[in-house]
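Protein in question passed on here:
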Amino acid sequence: MREQSENDISSEIVRADVICLVYSVVDDETFNRLSKYWLPLIREKLGDSHKVPVILVGNKSDERFEQGEQDSSLNRAIPIMHKFKEVETSLECSAKSMKNLAELFFYAQKAVLFPHAPLYNSAGQMLTEKCVTALTRVFKICDMDGDGVWNEEEMQEFQERCYNTPLLPQAMEEVRNCIAKHLPHGVKETGITLDGYLYLNMMFIHRGRQEATWTVLRKFGYDDDLELAESYRAITKLQPAIHKAEISTQGTHYLLCLFSKFDRDQDDLLSDSEFQNLLSVSSKRMIGQDWYQSVETDAKFALTRRGFISLFQLTAYFNPVYTADILAHFGYSYQMAEPDLNSAFDVHKDAPWEANKSSKEQPRKVILCNVIGNRGAGKTSFMEGFLGRNLSLQSKFRDKIDTQSPLHIINQISVYNTLKFLIVRFCTRSRLW
């Protein structure tokens, strides 16, 4: 076989999905060159932050036993794995006796399909920050009653939806006992906590079963960089240049369930803390800090159900892509058992109301009204009156926030005994000309 040149090796490194670095367990020099030459070379060609997994392979294990040596080289590889996070695992084999060859190629395939590095920081012996963030989102979405604990019913649904198999009572008890033994606060009488769930995933990864964690993460839309994939966040039927989007009946049902879940005191209002708790699932902001100017709230700025739905209708009308992103982060696809976000939206051609009214499309639910007039004519009071706010309440709102009049107001109205959403938009000269 022709010896490969450095250029040949460099080109192969760049093309590889996974790299197996082979050394001889009976030749210390080949082992030392792993950290002195080969791993630095790979970083030089791929970059210091490359994501190509590397497996350290100690070959000729049969010769070591023939020479009477018993010590494994795997312990010596641990410092290398701490220094070079791209190293997924290490193992010893014998090409002569075929020992562990099948395992080697199994691990090589596994390193590509279920990469270790995005999930676990080997140097710090902990889950990566992005992994914790992703799993925290998963936990909050599957905590259907929002009490901060997965009860048996929630665990069972999670198991069946993610792994397509039920969690037997004995297995459920084993999970609880395992967590309780190593992390007592990870278990409560009613179920497992977020810390318990994070520990469970760390245990999977320690045992080389990161496919269990990746199966869940991919179910919830994550790619190999632990970002939500574009396909998971998109409304595929929407063409922004020619379409307007509205929250559908199914999307509204989902949002009302979300409202009830986070209305912890069951007063039919979302207080600021309850609303912020909801938003913490997605780490996404809505339409700005002054969103409560635009929708119906009570006198203490708590969101009503109607105001909550209106807020999403307003956001969907002007920025459907961002609204889809929010619903994706909230876990719409999982909770509604849908393959994508399309069912959360109705899409219409961006045409005048009368043209849409005469078409065969499903009737639009959102109507846009522009408010035009001279300064001092009372346009702001007129708009806020649409939300049922008298002058006293309007003054209270203006004291709370440091902005000018709201650009948009939205509320529900009845049109021929059918509920619609009317957006009232404050028009400046720049919008008219």
User: Anything to note?
Assistant: The chain has 20 helices and 15 strands. The CA atoms of residues 210 and 392 lie 58 Å apart. Residues 28-46 form the longest helix (19 residues).
